[in-house]
Amino acid sequence: MRIGILGLGRIGAFHAETLSALDAVGSLVVADPFADAARAAAERFGAEVADSPEAVLAAGVDGVVIAAATDAHPALILAAVEAGVPVFCEKPVARTIAEGVDVLKAVSGRDVPVQIGFNRRFDAGFAAARAAVRGGELGKLHTVRSTTLDPAPPPAAYIAASGGIFRDCSVHDFDVVRWVTGREVSEVYAVGGNRGADFIREAGDADTTGAVLTLDDGTIAVISNSRHNARGYDVRMEIHGFDDSIAVGLEDKLPLRSVEPGTAFPAGTPHDFFMDRFAAAYRAELTAFTEVVAGARPSPCTIEDALEAGWIAEACTLSLHEHRPVTIAEVRRG
């Protein structure tokens, strides 16, 4: 099949590399506002270069991957759907939740699949955790812990446009908690601090946060995030039930140092970047998209799914700023 890629920055170029290695993909057509980025991808992966998103959509592509700047996501999603081309779009759907809702309304009723990029759904460990929970192996759940710790903050310009740590980073934890447990979040309470980079504080954001989520069945989920983790990129989940407890991410590349005497775990080189930690998940995610394009499966992560995680991020952002519990119903009304 023929796949278009819109945006050839860090993640777009990574997706181009992944797609070029998939058996289902015969050719790529790429476009980027920076012509040098498009040419570099074309030379590296044997792709064709188009001079605009419209030209990509008119080039006979079977599906399109959107890895452009967030502000461009709504228009590009709508253009692809209007052209009848299945879409994979990196999260978020839009810069704000209100814009995301507008996108959902605009594509509702259209028979064109849209897949939003939440790669943890395709990680082997998280998939195994979901299967264990859904299969009843843990019994009734009581506690979930989900962690995302970055090795260092992104650039100041990125932070200023990110919408805040809950919308940019924690949203992955929110999505995977919903996906693994099969439950919805009813209420949140969030806290945050700044002990590191001044530019994060100056942007009105926090560099380290914690959030307690109450799920609709009473399960408690504790979310921990930070832009500063000197040992590496740390993504983990614990799920505790009345019959058993399991963990995702307890492997030799875990960026954590044990001080227990005689303990050699973890023994590997720590993960230092999300593309390292989730390389296999990204491949599985884009393989799934080729199956969506082929009509072999429905979208495994819809706009509706992305917006549900977005509402949790909105509630946590409000809770942080107002120092109080916030229900999901409250932000939906707001």
Automatic annotation (TrEMBL):
InterPro entries with a match to the protein in the record: Gfo/Idh/MocA-like_OxRdtase_N, GFO_IDH_MocA-like_dom, NAD(P)-bd_dom_sf
Domain GFO/IDH/MocA-like oxidoreductase, chain residue ranges per copy: 126-244
Keywords: Oxidoreductase
Top-level division of the source organism's lineage: Bacteria
Pfam families with a match to the protein in the record: GFO_IDH_MocA, GFO_IDH_MocA_C3
Domain Gfo/Idh/MocA-like oxidoreductase N-terminal, chain residue ranges per copy: 1-118
Family the UniProt entry places it in: Belongs to the Gfo/Idh/MocA family.
Protein name: Gfo/Idh/MocA family oxidoreductase
The organism of origin for this protein: Streptomyces olivaceus
High-level lineage: Bacteria, Bacillati, Actinomycetota, Actinomycetes, Kitasatosporales
